[in-house]
Write a structure and sequence with these properties.
By secondary structure, the protein is mostly helical. Helices cover 67% and strands 0% of the residues. It has one domain. It is built from two helices and no strands. Helix 1 (2-14) runs antiparallel to helix 2 (19-37).
Length: 48
């Protein structure tokens, strides 16, 4: 999700008339970071 957000953000800056791509890209980056940092269900993610 973070990668898709970065791609849309970069495309939004390259194509001048597409401000919606910048907005969607920024939202996807923020949501992706929140989902990665906040444990879902109250359990910590365990890496084995």
């Amino acid at each position: 999700m973070i990668t898709l957000g970065l791609i849309l953000l970069i495309l939004g800056f390259l194509i001048e008339g597409m401000a919606i791509l910048k907005t969607i890209g920024a939202i996807l980056i923020v949501v992706g970071l929140i989902l990665n940092l906040v444990p879902i269900g109250g359990q910590r993610r365990r890496v084995f």
